[in-house]
Amino acid sequence: MHDGCMPRAREVLNRLKWTQGVGLNDVVVKYVHRGAPGDELSINGTQIIELGSSFMELAGAQIPYHRITTITYNEEVLYEKRSW
């Protein structure tokens, strides 16, 4: 990806969404969700309604990109949030 750094979550999701033949169907997004077991939830890319500038929109929820911890496509990790 650019200059050896891992791209941002939004960049990864947009690239998948707009790449012909790829899309978000085989994407799994894990994100921080307080109160869930382990404070983390997973969703399938088919649940994403829209990719906004600051968040992804699901039915009834808006998830800020900074809460995304991992994005996988066909079980390959494309994004993993660094822990500081």
Descriptive notes:
The structure is a single chain. This protein is mainly beta and about 80 residues long. The longest helix is centred in the first third of the chain and has 10 residues, at about 10-20. A four-stranded antiparallel β-sheet has the order 2-1-6-7, covered by helices on one side. It has a single domain, classed as SH3 type barrels. The mean pLDDT is about 90. It has one helix at about 10-20; strands spanning about 25-30, 40-45, 50, 55-60, 60-65, 70-75, 75-80.
List strands and helices in order, with pairings:
Layout: H1 9-18, E1 27-32, E2 40-44, E3 50-51, E4 55-58, E5 61-64, E6 68-73, E7 76-80
Antiparallel strand pairs: 1-2, 1-6, 3-4, 4-5, 6-7
Helix content: 10-25%
Tell me the number of helical segments per DSSP (H or I, 4 or more residues long). Answer: 1
Q: Which descriptor suits the 3D outline? A: globular
Secondary-structure element order, as H and E? HEEEEEEE
Q: Which structural class matches the secondary elements? A: mainly beta
Major sheet details: 4 strands, antiparallel
List unreliable stretches of 5+ residues.
none
Q: Total domains, how many?
A: 1
- CATH T-level fold name: SH3 type barrels
Overall mean pLDDT: 90
Q: What is the total tally of β strands?
A: 7
CATH class: Mainly Beta
What's the alpha carbon Rg, rounded to whole Å?
12 Å
Q: In percent terms, what proportion of residues is strand?
A: 35-45%
Which CATH architecture is right? Roll
Strand order of the largest sheet: 2-1-6-7
Distance, first to last CA: 21 Å
